[in-house]
Amino acid sequence: WNTKDGRSDHEHQYLYCQAMDSSENTELVKTPREYLAMKNVTPVGPSNVLSMAQLRTLPLGEQVRTLMKNVKVMAFATLMGLLASGTDSTAVLRCIQQVALLVQGTWVMKSDVLYPKNTCSSHSGVPAEVLCRGQDFVMWRFTSERTLMRKEVTAIIKLPPEDVKDFLEQMSVPRLNRGWEFLLATDHDFIRKHPDVAQRQHMLWLGIQSKLEKVFNFSKDDFVAKKDVKQEPMSDSEKPMDTSLTNGSINGYPDFVRSTFRKHYVLCLSEVKRLFNLHLPSLPTGHSVYGHVMDRMLQDTILQSQCKQILVPFPPQSNATADEQKVFGLWESGETFDKVISGSCSLIYVIFSNRLMFTF
Q1: H/E element holding 148?
Q2: For residue 247, what are the β-bridge partners?
Q3: pLDDT in tens, 114-166
Q4: Distance separating alpha carbons of residues 7 and 5, to the nearest angstrom
Q5: Among 101, 106, 100, which Cα is nearest to 74's?
Q6: I need a labelling partner for 303 at 20 to 30 A (CA). Which of 85, 169, 287, 312 fits?
Q7: Which parts of the chain have pLDDT scores under 70?
Q8: Which residues form the DNA-directed RNA polymerase III subunit RPC5 C-terminal domain (predicted)?
Q9: Could you give the C-alpha distances from 285 to 3, 90, 293, in angstroms and in order?
Q10: What pLDDT, on a 0 to 100 scale, did the predictor assign at position 223?
Q11: DSSP states of 303-353 as a string?
C-alpha cells in the first residue's frame, strides 16, 4: 500500500484494529461513566469503624451504645451533639441509662457492657465478672472524689496493676503528685435539669456500694467519713483530730495561706488552689488523703489570715472562671515592710470596692 497516501494509512490502521482480539481492547470501549468509576478510589478504613452517616442509620439505642463504647465517658450535652438534629432527649436518656451510669453528672460506660460475659482480661486472663467488680469500685469512688490513688485502689480490689491502670485510663487522667483525676468536670447543669435521673442513679449507686462492701470487705465509713470531715466546718471547741497536722494547723491551710500571701500579696482563688496542690508533696506522710482542696475551707482560711476579698469588676463577656474572679489580697501584717505592702492592697481594695475607674 502507498505509505505516503493518508487514506491508505488510515485504512491500514482500521484493519489492524479490527484484527485484534476484543478482550485485549477493553480499555478503549468503556463508557465515560465506567471510566470515571475506575478512577474513583474508595478510601479503605478499619472494618470496626462506623462513619457518622452509617451510625445514624442504626436504631437510637445502638447509636448511643456504639458512641459510649468508643468514648467511655461523655457529658449528656456532648452525646446529644453527636446524634442527629432533633433527636428526642427523653428517648436518649432512656437509652443512655441502659449502657452507662451517672458519675459526677457525666455518663460512664457500665462495666458489664465493657466486659461482656465469658470474656477475660487481655493482660492477666482475669474473668469478666471479676473485672466488672473492680471497674464498679473505681466508678463508685469517683462518684464522691475527684482524684484517686492507684496504689490505694489496687490494695482494695487486689487485681493486677495492668487491669487497675485500664480502669483508671478509661475514666481519668494522671496528675503529677495527685493521682488520677476524673476525666470530665462535674456537670452540675445536667444534675440541675434532670434531678429525677440523678436521684435514680444515686439509688443505683447505693445498691452497687452495698455489693462492693461485701465483696471487698470494707465499710462506707472508710471513705465517706473522711469526706465528711473535710466538708464540715470546725468550731472553736472542736479538736482537729485526724485532719490536723503535728503543728495543729487544720489540713495545713493556715500556715500555707500565710506564707503564700506574704510572698505574692494578691492572688485569685484558682491560683491559690494550684499553689496548694504543688505544696501537697511536702506535707507529712499520710496527709495526702486530705489533700483535696476544699473551696469553702480554703476561702474561710484566707479571710481569717489577715486577707480580704477584692471585688474586681470583671466585664460580663469575661472568660475568667468563677475561681479566677475571686481575688484576695493581704490586708495587714506586723512588720514594717508588710505594712507598706498591705497598705497598697488596702488601697486597691477600696478602689475596687467603690468601683472607681481610672484611665492611664
Answers
A1: strand 147-148
A2: none
A3: 999 989 998 889 999 999 999 999 999 999 999 999 999 999 999 999 999 99
A4: 5
A5: 106
A6: 287
A7: 1-6, 16-29, 40-50, 220-253, 279-295, 332-360
A8: 255-340
A9: 103, 49, 17
A10: 66
A11: HTTTEEEE-----TT----HHHH-EEEE---SSHHHHHHHHHHHHHHHHHH
Note whether 320 and 314 are within 8 A (CB). Answer: yes
How far is the CA of 244 from the CAs of 26, 67, 113, 148, 300, in angstroms?
A: 88, 46, 43, 21, 16
Predicted confidence at residue 42, as pLDDT, reads 61
What are the tens digits of pLDDT across the range 182-215? 999 999 999 999 999 999 999 999 999 999 999 9
| Helix axis angle, 253-264 to 295-303, nearest 10° | 60
CB 223 within 8 A of CB 141: yes
Nearest by Cα to 331 from 353, 312, 300, 309: 309
Other CB atoms closer than 10 Å to residue 341's CB: what's the count? Answer: 18
The rounded distance, in Å, linking the Cα atoms of 233 and 231 is: 6
Residues paired with residue 173 on neighbouring β-strands, in sequence order? 181
Global model pTM greater than 0.70: no
**Is the four-CA dihedral 292, 266, 247, 236 of positive or negative sign?**
negative
Amino acid 63: pLDDT: 94
**Separation of alpha carbons 336 and 43, rounded Å:** 74
Q: Do residues 12 and 1 touch, judged by C-beta distance below 8 A?
A: yes
> For residue 112, which of 126, 94, 133 has the smallest C-alpha distance?
133
Element (H, E) at 190: helix 188-193
184 Cβ contact list (under 8 Å, min separation 6):
73, 74, 75, 104, 106
